[in-house]
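Notes from the 1:1 (GR / supervisor)

We went over the backlog. Supervisor wanted to see one worked example end to end before approving the batch request, so GR pasted a single chain during the call. The sequence is below; no edits were made to it. Supervisor asked that the structure be written out right there so they could see what the output format looks like.
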Amino acid sequence: MAPAVERDPLEMEVRERPLPAHVGIIMDGNGRWAEERGLNRLEGHREGSNSVREVTRAARRIGVQALTLYAFSAQNWSRPAEEVAGLMDLLREYLESERQEILENGIRLDAVGELERLPRFVREPLDSVREASARNRGMVLTLALSYGGQEEIAAAAEELIRRARTGGLPPGPIDVETFASALWTGRLPPVDLVIRTSGETRVSNFMLWQSAYAEFIFVDTLWPEFRARQFLEAVLEYQKRERRFGLTSAQLPK
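Structure output shown during the call:
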């Protein structure tokens, strides 16, 4: 007889409560983690990829519908050229090494941002995994690459202008739903929970529109040390909060 699988009590508790449909994570602290250990900053990003793997697995296990990871911002292009090149290499390695697990677990990989700015050796494996996983019906894993929330909103405005000029958008007021449909994330639900690691308490241009009513959780843990347990603890904290969406507590369903 096979031995019984020991279940994590924390994971079981999280499963019993309402889950956030969409979680966004600002993965901060890779460089500091490396510098504290006298290592090259890229070693922090490399170790951080192990956190990506663990957190993605945990999110899929508990039933999160969508997980969006802030992997490379539009502003990160201004970092030293050597670091940017190293990050692009690590991104390609991640896409190649995780392809099989993504496909075997029914995950759909997507990406948002100014993707045309990515080098070809990154775009090609990214496009390949996106295409191969497009029909998967499990969790949607979205990588925010060369991404900025302000840039996304500006791009959505340009897209609506284009639709209006070509007859795809009738004259009249633009409502929230119409504007949201033009965003890069138009296929995703609004963000319920945003987690930021490393002790910083700012959003850094991440999903400004989508997180209008998100719960924010800021943790001191640096991203390379943020693993499945820390993720589950953040989700549990989210589950204990009262989400009112502009209503009073008395108006909420009992």
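Supervisor's comment: The chain has eight helices and six strands.
Batch request approved.
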